[in-house]
Design a protein that fits this description.
Helix content: over 70%
Shape: elongated
Structural class: mainly alpha
Protein name: TetR/AcrR family transcriptional regulator
Radius of gyration: 20 Å
Order of helices and strands: HHHHHHHHH
Keywords: DNA-binding
Number of helices: 9
InterPro entries: Homeodomain-like_sf, HTH_TetR
Strand content: under 5%
GO molecular function: DNA binding
């Protein structure tokens, strides 16, 4: 009979998540997880084959967390909802945001494609965007993601002007979204 796990998978993932959110994903090691749990590394290997498997579980937890934040803001305006969720993630988990946005991350490749599909689906439900094709929505989304990534990194690093609070960041986001959509409409009209 195999040994009974001393810690659940969830406890191990939570410990690894704590390390990732304070020190970065690259600093998640089996040894650090064991130290954080006050254990040897053996119980971790009962639940996981290696540190890469643990890191994939941490990424999955972060993705679930970001999706949860996105679901909390269903205003019907996809750019606003995405922006609020991104900015909240940046303010609550700045190390993770810097890690995911600035470091090449093989763990996120599949999630990014899945997320883009989900975001385009959200955009297709927005009455203000219904006259755009999927290809046009992808182009609009890419432009908004580029802007949002920059704004999110500024928030994660505290680089925005001091008087530039959360509400002002959302107003800026709304303004840029309006500009991007308006420019897309103008280009679409010029092509017809």
């Amino acid at each position: 009979m195999p040994p009974r796990p001393k810690f659940s998978k969830e406890q191990i993932i939570n410990s690894a998540f704590h390390i990732a959110k304070t020190e970065g994903l690259d600093n998640v090691t089996i040894r650090k997880i064991a130290d954080h749990l006050g254990s040897s590394s053996a119980p971790i290997y009962v639940n996981f084959n290696d540190v890469d498997e643990v890191k994939r579980a941490v990424i999955h937890k972060v993705v679930e967390l970001s999706q949860q934040m996105l679901q909390e803001h269903q205003s019907g305006n996809p750019f606003r909802d995405i922006g609020i969720a991104s900015l909240k993630m940046a303010m609550e988990y700045p190390v993770l945001i810097r890690d995911f946005a600035l470091e090449p991350n093989e763990y996120l490749k599949n999630y990014d494609e899945e997320m883009v599909r989900e975001l385009v689906n959200m955009m297709q439900k927005d009455p203000g965007l219904e006259d755009f094709t999927e290809e046009e929505l992808m182009a609009i989304l890419l432009k908004m993601r580029i802007f949002q990534t920059g704004l999110t990194l500024m928030a994660a690093n505290g680089l925005q002007p001091e008087e530039f609070d959360f509400d002002q960041m959302i107003k800026l986001l709304d303004s840029v979204a309006e500009d991007v959509v308006m420019a897309a409409r103008i280009r679409k009209g010029e092509k017809q």
